[in-house]
Every structure is written in structure tokens, then in C-alpha cells.
Amino acid sequence: MIARPSFAAAPLGLLAHVPNELRGRHCHDTAYVAIVLEGGYQEAGDEGRFDVGPGDVLIHHDFESHLDRVEARGARVLILDLPPTLAGAPYVRGRVRDPDALVRFASRDAAAAAALLVEDFTALPAAARDWPDLLARDLRTLTPFALAD
User: Fold this and answer.
1) What are phi and psi of 23, to 5 degrees?
2) CA dist 137 to 85, 89, 107, 118, Å?
3) What torsion do the CA atoms of 49, 52, 58, 64 make, to the nearest 10 degrees?
4) Closest CA to 45 of 32, 30, 31, 26
5) pLDDT digits (tens, 9 = 90+) for 10-36
6) Which of 26, 67, 117, 124 has the maximal Cβ count within 10 Å?
7) CB 57 within 8 A of CB 82
8) What is the pLDDT of residues 55-92, one digit of tens each?
9) At 10, is the secondary structure helix, strand, or coil?
């Protein structure tokens, strides 16, 4: 029997991951963005695998499933609602120049933080490192392909 991923909260605001934390496969029932402020981790899931560090942004859609492997130094992340202008985007990873500005805005005005995120966001191509990453990319882009390939 295949274990189903559990649901996990992604509370808005600052989130600290402890060093070497492994968050097993889980789902979030609402869309959000994660902006890495310090440290880093690898996220592996429906959208592929991503190694992220300070300034990196991951877009998470409703009911997406993934796991997180946190680095030895831990990680600090800002969680924001997914702005509508990024919700339908064909990419899932990007960067911002000034993640600290997002923290300052988010502490006062979530809408202003979302607007700044959209303004400062630069999409990054997914780096396909292995066949699961290639499969995730093909599924995400809906490019017709044969599973045998």
C-alpha cells in the first residue's frame, strides 16, 4: 500500500526549519510562496527537485505534494499568500533581489508585500538533473510525450 501524504500547515509569516530537518512528504491545501531568507534546503515533489537558498522563491499550488531536506545550518523562510498574477505562471521557482524588504513589508501589510514580490520576482528555469525532474517538467508543461521515452 502506498502511503498518502499528510496535510501540513504553511502558516503565513516567518518559519524556521531546524538544522538537518526532514519534513516527510506532505501536502498543503492552499497555495502560497516560500521565500528563503537564510540557510537552505532541498524540496522534492510534484514540480521536481529544487535546491534553494537566500533570495530563492518557490511557488506552491493547491494540493501540491513535496518533502523538504533542510541543510545542516537550518533555514528561515517567509511564507506569503500566492499573488494571483503568479498563480497561473508556468514556472515554479524564481528569485528576489531583496528578501529582507519583503519581511519588512509583510510585517506591516501583506498586500504590499505581495505587490513587492510580484514586482521583484524573476523566474528561474527548472534545472532537470535526472529523469524524475524531466518527467515533472514534462507533466508541468503538458508537452505530449510517451512514458517509454
Assistant:
1) -95, 110
2) 21, 14, 35, 23
3) 40
4) 26
5) 778 999 999 999 999 998 888 999 999
6) 117
7) no
8) 999 999 888 889 999 999 999 999 999 999 998 877 78
9) coil
Side-chain-side CA neighbours of residue 96 (13 Å) = 26
Cell numbers standing for residue 88: 497561473
C-alpha cell at 103: 519581511
8 Å CB contact between 19 and 74: yes
Residue whose C-alpha is closest to residue 8's, from 59, 67, 57: 67
Put simply, whether the predicted model's pTM sits higher than 0.85 gets the answer no
Displacement of CA 72 from its chain's centroid (Å): 19
Closest CA to 23 of 2, 11, 37, 9: 9
Query: How many whole angstroms from its chain centre is CA 36?
Result: 9
Q: In this structure, which long-range contacts are made by residues 137-144, counting pairs with CB atoms below 8 Å and at least 24 apart in sequence?
A: 137/48, 139/46, 140/47, 140/48, 140/90, 140/92, 141/90
